[in-house]
């Protein structure tokens, strides 16, 4: 991991994480889960490094959009059976409730960090997207999928509740309560067509194009009013627990703040000149 002059901050231009791949092209960062021989499962260490990365992205002004994908034709198969589930079973057998709770807090903190960072997060999903992999896609702001992809919240298949990492809160808001309940109770998979029809995917794309299309969308958003995008993301997240009146007030304050940005003036002057605005995110 390369650090900036401030030793507490990651220099994302030179970032070299240990447990996934990272690249930064212009204002768009790409995280690639990179254990293709196992369909890119997560470990204790990769969970923690992803959590810490998204926490640090709150301070990364140069990164405007993040794309998450997986290597080798699959997105993510969830927690590694041998490196996570096995050790957790041994904790259970030893009566180590604190160790189990430390793990579930850590996994939930990854979703919290994804929702709290100001960057728009786009998941480019192909192949297997199950368990914690489905949660990462769910916690993203936008999801592009392929027709042959398989999305499943598998927790009941291993004797756990479907209530994992915020799924009972977030998934119903994406696809509806009844559909979410079916997936979380049964653990069955959705193919890409169903996932798009149910609203989990924003759109379907052929496998060879899903990552390029995600990058194309990311570049477009990164060239937009990114301060305003971050405000939109914050409002979407915060207003889940608000009534309509509180939401209207929150959005009034948000817009008044955005009206103080230079991008707002740039958009007006470009409109008057009949030109495309050149946003700078400030």
Care to describe what's here?
The structure is a single chain. The protein folds into two domains: 12-222, 2-enoyl-CoA Hydratase, Chain A, domain 1 (Alpha-Beta Complex), CATH 3.90.226; 226-272. 48% of the residues lie in helices and 13% in strands. It has eleven helices and nine strands. It has a six-stranded mixed sheet, sandwiched between helices. β1 (21-25) and β2 form a beta hairpin. It is globular.
Largest sheet: 6 strands, mixed
- The CATH class name of the largest domain reads Alpha Beta
Quickly count the domains.
2
Q: Give the strand order, joined by hyphens, for the main sheet.
A: 1-2-3-4-6-9
Question: Treating each run of at least 4 consecutive H or I residues as one helix, how many helices?
Answer: 11
Residue share in helix: 40-55%
What is the percentage of strand-forming residues?
5-15%
Summarize the structure.
The chain is built from eleven helices and nine strands. With 282 residues, the protein is of the alpha/beta class. The protein has a six-stranded mixed β-sheet with strand order 1-2-3-4-6-9, sandwiched between helices.
Keywords:
282 residues, alpha/beta, 2 domains, six-stranded mixed sheet, 11 helices
């Amino acid at each position: 991991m390369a650090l900036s002059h401030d030793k507490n901050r990651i220099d994302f231009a030179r970032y070299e994480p240990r447990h996934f791949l990272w690249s930064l092209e212009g204002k768009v960062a790409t995280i690639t889960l990179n254990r293709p021989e196992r369909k890119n499962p997560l470990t204790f260490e990769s969970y923690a490094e992803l959590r810490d990365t998204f926490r640090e992205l709150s301070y990364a002004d140069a990164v405007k959009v993040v794309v998450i994908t997986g290597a080798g034709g699959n997105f993510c198969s969830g927690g590694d059976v041998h490196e996570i589930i096995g050790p957790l079973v041994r904790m259970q057998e030893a009566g180590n409730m604190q160790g189990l709770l430390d793990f579930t807090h850590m996994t939930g903190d990854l979703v919290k960090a994804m929702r709290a960072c100001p960057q728009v997060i786009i998941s480019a999903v192909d192949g297997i997207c199950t368990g914690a992999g489905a949660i990462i896609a769910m916690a993203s702001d936008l999801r592009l999928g392929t027709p042959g992809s398989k999305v499943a919240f598998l927790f009941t298949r291993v004797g756990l509740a479907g209530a994992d990492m915020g799924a009972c809160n977030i998934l119903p808001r994406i696809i509806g309560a009844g559909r979410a309940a079916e997936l979380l109770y049964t653990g069955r998979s959705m193919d890409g067509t169903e996932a798009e029809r149910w609203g989990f995917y924003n759109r379907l794309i052929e496998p060879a194009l899903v990552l390029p299309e995600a990058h194309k969308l990311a570049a477009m958003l990164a060239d937009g009013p990114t301060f305003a995008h971050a405000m939109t993301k914050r409002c979407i997240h915060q207003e889940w627990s608000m009534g309509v009146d509180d939401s209207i007030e929150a959005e009034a304050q948000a817009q008044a703040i955005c009206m103080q940005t230079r991008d707002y003036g740039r958009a007006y002057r470009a409109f008057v000149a009949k030109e495309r605005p050149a946003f700078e995110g400030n």
